[in-house]
Each structure stands twice: as structure tokens, then as C-alpha cells.
Design brief:
Elements lengths: L6 H6 L26 H5 L6 E4 L16 H9 L4 E8 L9 H5 L18 E4 L10 H15 L6 H4 L2 H6 L2 E4 L3 H4 L3 H26 L9 E9 L2 E8 L8 H22 L5 H14 L5 H5 L3 H5 L6 H6 L11 H14 L4 E6 L4 E8 L2 E5 L1 H6 L6 E3 L44 H9 L19 H11 L21 H9 L19 H11 L10 H4 L11 H9 L19 H11 L1
Antiparallel strand pairs: 1-3, 2-5, 4-6, 5-6, 7-8, 8-9, 9-10
Helix pairs in contact: 5-9, 11-15, 17-23, 18-19, 20-22
């Protein structure tokens, strides 16, 4: 494990503004350990005083800190009457000597979401003191949420602007065991509590760094501060900037360039409707528009004296269009891919290997997770590391010493092609999954975006016309002003006009089609009935079957009779048909699959 810096040394001097990790191997045969040897500095440090853990014995007595209110925290953060220390930290350049930690994470979890979501379950134990574990998870999660919300503000946020006073407000204040409870002298107490502050705050930053690709300007480099007043500790993060990001004007210029390029790439990916094809486009675009930056890895001072951009999403996205920005190392590829995925709603995170000096992506695809390593795909001219089981193969060991042992990684699955259902809101046990798979396979229905089917969303009259139009093969249609609310060139225009021309749909007496109106269940029956040419069906006693059969409009009676007789439409568990009720997209998928 990486040794941790302690408040004892940090209170004396800020000696640990270390070089950044290279974490950037191109392939298994070309791993780099760039960076100055800092082992002599570590030899000067006291022993570690504690560590985070994800669980404690059930019989343990646990100290549960009180998290102070936001108002109290801000007052403490603004106060000058307590002793305060600050210290800096980067990804360490120390490699783990074995793969012990990788074995801890060999079996992932399918329910993984983000690293930050796992903070809530962490405890802090004092290695040198016989005292109850401290349940720090809720405080860590609160600080994570505070800073993440600020990061989402972009250029107006305190993190982007480096506003120290505002950044302190994003921290957290919590009660801690007293010096007497721990049985320590004042100096030893400072060391132990400082170690605790470092552990919890650095891991919070690492989670933010892994979960938030929009924080392109502060990857892996942070100052952290804490102060103690009685039995209250205030902790905060001060994300820092490397060369190329140090001035606000530099960050603003890069943000503007990055926003424009991301919009361009995402717009070009819009021609692909599936998550798989969008991800493939992002992977291929990054490979085609970048060349691995060997110079950044061979020069240990590159990120501080030349530029930190190769380790940033900005490099992966801008190097092809701005000659002043050089190509990425693996972090640049991985963070750029993560940022592009996030823009289209795909949940992706970055993964670090200490022994492999490498970074890649884990990506949620539907109810599964898969792996993508753009760096190796580029350098090896392959697609072998796209949507594959990347974790715990050569160069990809799950032994990140800041996470291994108490954070879960996702269990990866190989995704062969776009036929795998990509929707986050359709679980394996969802009642309409097979029907949704059917309409998805046949391109009859797509999601509200590439990873959301919109199972609970009401389907509109225009959307239902579009489904039938897709089933018909989307034939050419001449525009007419048949309906007041169907303008030329809209996504639904051809579908509505085609359906009206075929006698499948009709509009309202006032000349509108009702494009955005939720469609009624009885009208779905009418449209499907007319789409099939009004086929014959045995008569059904609807009144005996449904308690609300009297609510079926006369014009819909033949169609509803057909739909019920053929098993296309059935009632609810309470004996009603709800003919004038609306239908969800999931219900529509079931109706379509039963009809076609």
C-alpha cells in the first residue's frame, strides 16, 4: 500500500507537493514508472497511525460522529481561532510490489454505480490506539456530495475558480474522539487526528477524481486542510492545478475549447441510436485523432514544468485540433472517453492499476458492466479492449492502493454487439423486458436516450405513430399541411402524415393531431386495429369482463373487442380495462410485440 503522509510532518512544512503519477502505460511491454524517487522522504515520516476499513466486527463498539449543520460548519471554516493545517497530495509514484490487492477485487458486483456512492460505509480505525472504530462514512459522503455539486456548476464553481474560502465551505465538520478518550499527548493527538483527516479527505478526492470527468483541470492533485477545535474537526478539499491549468484564464480557455469539441463529437455520434454504437464511435474517434505521448512519460517533470494536459480529458479531445496541446497518455484517453460517455448519459468511471501504471474505463451497459481501454486499442490498432473483460488481466490489476480492499469494482461482462439491451431502467426481472427486447431488436422503438427506455413515461400520439411508421420501413411521404400542429421537418412529421394517409390515425375536430398529447388505451387499440386492416374477431362480452366497459367510446368498440379477443389488450388486476387511461412506453412495447 502507498504510505500516507501525516500531520506531524505536514504541520512543520508543506514538503509533500509531490510529482504526479504517470499512470500511463501504452501496453504491457511498455510500462513506465516516470517520476522522481521519493522513497527518502517517506523514510522521514512517522508510522501510519490509522486506516480506513469498509467493515467492522458486529460486536465492536463504534464511535458515531455528529455531523454539524452547514451553518455551523461554515462558521468554523471561517474561524481563525483554532489550529489549522494544510497539506498536498498527488497520486503516489510508488508501485505495489505484488498483486495481493487485485485478488481482493477479483469478483466484482453487478450493482456498482460510482465510487462516491460507496463512501457511506467506511470506518476509520486507529492502528496505534486501542479505541472504537469511527464511522466516518456519512461525513465523507457529505463532503463528496458538496464538492460534486460544485463541480457540476462548471466555470461558476469554487473548484474551477480556486476560491479557497468557498471551497472550505464545501467541506464538513464532525465530532471526533477527544485527546483524553484516545489516551494521547497533545503532539501525538495532532499526529493521529491529522492522519485521520488525510485518510478520509484524500479518499474523498480520489472518488471525485474518478467519478467526475468534467473536473479535467485537477486530475489527481489536491491540497487538503483540517482544523481541530475541542472535539470538532473541520475538513475540506482544495483541488489544485498543474501546468497548463494554473491560471483561471487558461482553465476558461480550455473549458470553452473542450465544450465546443465535446458538442461536435457528440453531435457526430447522434447518427447512432444505440449506446454500443455511440461508445464505439467515441473509442474510434479518440484512436483516430490521437497519438500516445511518449515524451510526457519519459520526462518526470513534464506535468509540472511542461503541461499536465496529457493526463487530462482536454488532451484526448483537443490535441488533434490545437497544435499547442500535445497528445494524451492513458489518463487522457480514459478521461476523454468518460467525459464523452457522460454527455450522452452513459455511466463510465476510470480505473487505476498501481502495478500496471495504467488507467482505463469501466462502463455500465444496461444491467451489466463492461471494460474499455482506448489506450491499448489505439497503440495496438485493435478493438480487443472494447466492451471486454479488461479488469485483472495483464496491466489492468485492480490494486489501486487508495481503493483496493474496501471499495468494490464492477463485475465485467463482454458485450458482443448492440443487440444487448442497453437500458438502465429495464432490469432483468422487469415484467416487460422480453417485449422491450423485441421492439428494440427490430428497431420499432428506441429509448428516450441511448440508455433509458422510459418505461414509466406516457407515450404520446406522435410517438405511437412513429413506431408504426418505423415498422412500415419509414417510406417517403410528401408534406401536406393536414394538421395544424404538424409542422414540416419535425421528427414526427412523416410518421403522422403517413399514418393519416393510410387511414390508421385521425386528428381532432379542431384540425390538430394532438402531437404531444398522451395517447389513450382505447385509441391504441383503434390504431393497431386499423393498421392491421380491421380484422375480424370473435365477439367478447366486454361488460361481463370489465367493470368499466361502459367507458369505451362507441368508435373504439370494434377495436377494443378485437384487442381483447386476440389477447393484445387485457385488463388490470382490479377488473378494469381503463380504456380512457394513458399508456406507458413499456405497456406500448408489450402491445406492439403482441400485435406485430
Amino acid at each position: 500500500m502507498k504510505k500516507r503522509l501525516t500531520a506531524y510532518l505536514l504541520a512543520m512544512a508543506l514538503v509533500c507537493t509531490l510529482i504526479p503519477t504517470a499512470f500511463a502505460s501504452q501496453n504491457a511491454d511498455n510500462a513506465s514508472t516516470a517520476g522522481t524517487d521519493i522513497s527518502s522522504l517517506y523514510e522521514q515520516l512517522p508510522q501510519e497511525e490509522g486506516s480506513l476499513t469498509k467493515s467492522v466486527a458486529t460486536e465492536d463498539v463504534v464511535f458515531e460522529p455528529e455531523i454539524l449543520s452547514q451553518d455551523m460548519h461554515e462558521r468554523l471554516a471561517d474561524s481563525d481561532d483554532f489550529e489549522e493545517f494544510e497539506y498536498s497530495r498527488n497520486y503516489s509514484n510508488e508501485a505495489v510490489e505484488n498483486k495481493e490487492n487485485a485478488s481482493l477485487n477479483a469478483n466484482g458486483t453487478a450493482s456498482f454505480s460510482t465510487y462516491g456512492e460507496q463512501l457511506d460505509g467506511l470506518y476509520y480505525t486507529f492502528d496505534s490506539v486501542s479505541y472504537a472504530p469511527v464511522y466516518v462514512g456519512p461525513a465523507m459522503k457529505q463532503m463528496y456530495d458538496n464538492v460534486k455539486a460544485d463541480i457540476s456548476k462548471g466555470t461558476s464553481g469554487a473548484v474551477f475558480n480556486g476560491n479557497t474560502e468557498e471551497l472550505k465551505k464545501l467541506g464538513v465538520s464532525l465530532t471526533i474522539p477527544s485527546m483524553q478518550e484516545l489516551g494521547l499527548s497533545l503532539d501525538d493527538y495532532k499526529t493521529v487526528i491529522g492522519e485521520m483527516a488525510l485518510n478520509l479527505s484524500w479518499v474523498v478526492y480520489r472518488c471525485l477524481d474518478s467519478d467526475c470527468p468534467e473536473m479535467f483541470y485537477s486530475n489527481g492533485y489536491c491540497r487538503m486542510g483540517y482544523g481541530v477545535r475541542g472535539t470538532t474537526m473541520t475538513v475540506y478539499l482544495l483541488p489544485q492545478y498543474r501546468a497548463g491549468f494554473t491560471s483561471l484564464s487558461q482553465r476558461q480557455q480550455l473549458q470553452a475549447q473542450l465544450d465546443a469539441k465535446v458538442s461536435e463529437v457528440v453531435a457526430n455520434a447522434a447518427k447512432y441510436s444505440t449506446a454500443y454504437d455511440k461508445m464505439k464511435y467515441f473509442n474510434d474517434w479518440l484512436c483516430e485523432n490521437n497519438e500516445y505521448n511518449d515524451d510526457a512519460i519519459s520526462d518526470s517533470s513534464y506535468s509540472e514544468q511542461v503541461s499536465g494536459l496529457p493526463w487530462s480529458a482536454a488532451s484526448g479531445l483537443l490535441s488533434s485540433s490545437d497544435s499547442s496541446i500535445k497528445g494524451p497518455v492513458c489518463e487522457g484517453y480514459a478521461r476523454a472517453f468518460q467525459l464523452l460517455c457522460k454527455q450522452v448519459g452513459i455511466n463510465a468511471t476510470v480505473v487505476v492499476s498501481d502495478t500496471g501504471w495504467h488507467m482505463w474505463n469501466n462502463v455500465r451497459y444496461g444491467n451489466q458492466w463492461t471494460g474499455v481501454d482506448v489506450t491499448w486499442n489505439d497503440s495496438m490498432h485493435t478493438s480487443q479492449y472494447f466492451c471486454s473483460k479488461v479488469n485483472n488481466i495483464s496491466g489492468h490489476w485492480l490494486d489501486d492502493s487508495d481503493f483496493a480492499g474496501w471499495f468494490q469494482y464492477p463485475e465485467l461482462t463482454e458485450i458482443a454487439d448492440s443487440s444487448v439491451l442497453p437500458f438502465y431502467d429495464v432490469s432483468d426481472s422487469f415484467w416487460g423486458r422480453s417485449n422491450i427486447q423485441y421492439v428494440y431488436d427490430h428497431s420499432y422503438m428506441v429509448g428516450t436516450n441511448c440508455v433509458t427506455f422510459g418505461t414509466k413515461s406516457q407515450i404520446t400520439r406522435a410517438e405511437f405513430a412513429q413506431i408504426l411508421y418505423s415498422i412500415a420501413g419509414s417510406p417517403e411521404v410528401a408534406y401536406t399541411g393536414r394538421f395544424q400542429d404538424v409542422a414540416q421537418g419535425k421528427w414526427y412529421t412523416n410518421a403522422v402524415l403517413w399514418a393519416a394517409e393510410k387511414g390508421i390515425v385521425s386528428g381532432y375536430p379542431d384540425g390538430r393531431y394532438g402531437v404531444h398529447d398522451p395517447i389513450k388505451r382505447e385509441d391504441i387499440a383503434v390504431i393497431l386495429y386499423q393498421y392491421l386492416g380491421s380484422p375480424a374477431a370473435e365477439a367478447v362480452d366486454l361488460g361481463a369482463k370489465f367493470t368499466d366497459a361502459d367507458r369505451i367510446h362507441g368508435y373504439a368498440q370494434p377495436a377494443v373487442n378485437w384487442a381483447v379477443a386476440k389477447g393484445v389488450m387485457s385488463g388490470n388486476g382490479n377488473g378494469t380495462l381503463n380504456p380512457r387511461g394513458t399508456a406507458t412506453r413499456a405497456e406500448s412495447a408489450v402491445l406492439i410485440s403482441k400485435t406485430i
